[in-house]
Write a structure and sequence with these properties.
The chain contains 9 helices and 2 strands, in the order ααββααααααα. It is mainly alpha-helical. The chain has a two-stranded antiparallel ribbon. Residues 20-40 are annotated as: Disordered.
Length: 178
């Protein structure tokens, strides 16, 4: 989506840039009807095919074989949405389970944070972004009892900490313990 929006062609997949009529029907001042090709239609077809080509080039072979008969970017977008919507729900549930079950264990703070931010990025990619306070809760949940003094202190804070502040606090805590 960011690439399509960035070049101004997302309308071809979300149908806000619909296909114009192929033929323009007009009446002259005497009421005589005439028809002529719509010049906007050929431009739309050319741009739609460019978007379709871009999308097709970014699909895996396994997905590509399922959509070979599709002829417009919008049709492809709808087909892909249908194919992956149920997988997205399952994926979101699996990522949430991973977030709940994640443990810092003997990982470094940097490694643990990278793992947790990775889960947050996956949630965002699946259309369910986490707020920072939610991610902080998951991170704190995964800390073992050695971090209980820090967790208790953070729970007593009136103003919430940011992810960067939490990272610094955990890093400093680890350095003091070491």
């Amino acid at each position: 989506m960011p690439q399509l929006r960035g070049v101004g062609v997302f309308g071809y997949v979300d149908d806000t840039t619909p296909e114009p009529a192929k033929i323009l029907h007009t009446k002259d001042k005497d009421g005589k009807e005439s028809s002529e090709p719509n010049p906007l239609h050929s431009i739309w077809v050319r741009e739609d095919q460019q978007v379709l080509g871009y999308l097709l080039n970014n699909l895996t072979k396994e997905v590509l074989v399922q959509v070979t008969a599709i002829t417009t970017a919008r049709e492809l977008w709808v087909a892909l949405s249908g194919m992956f919507s149920s997988q997205s729900l399952s994926r979101v549930n699996n990522i949430r389970t991973s977030l709940v079950n994640a443990q810092k264990g003997n990982k470094t703070v940097a490694t643990y944070f990278a793992e947790m931010r990775g889960f947050a990025d996956e949630m965002a990619a699946a259309g369910k972004p986490l707020r920072d306070d939610e991610l902080i809760s998951y991170i704190m949940h995964g800390l073992d009892m050695d971090y209980q003094p820090l967790v208790s202190a953070l729970d007593a804070c009136i103003t919430p900490v940011s992810l960067d502040e939490l990272f610094s606090m955990l890093s400093n805590f680890d350095q003091r313990v070491a």
